[in-house]
Amino acid sequence: MAADFLTELISSLGVNFANPVALAINIILSTIIGGIILLIIVEIIGKHYSENIKPLNAFLVVLVINIINLPIVFGLISSFLSFIPFLGVILPVLIWIILVKMFFKEMSFAHALIVGVVGWVVTLFVIPYIVGMVMGFLPAMG
Question: Which range of residues forms the domain containing residue 109?
């Protein structure tokens, strides 16, 4: 009875735990690709404003955001904040801005705001497209 409820809950969240290898490969690929793209964005802003940037932090930011964006984690966070209107748009942007400022402490808040918004837009449009292209070159996991 409880196992059926848990199975239905996990399947309704949209996470495919039936194939955890594919999920892990997707997270690893999106972290690598997203980290490279974020590193390029941060380096451009860092060079323009003479800020010293650690390249490893770009990959850590994207990895943490990929883990937060899993439907289980994001659903849990958004359930606590369900009273906020437009939460589906506001929360990911805030997560990006906060994590960029946390991992790149030397970056000013205005630059973290710019990188957070650009990173969120890139996460929506560019990274899934590139990950889909790269996944086409990998053998099927099913």
Answer: 19-130
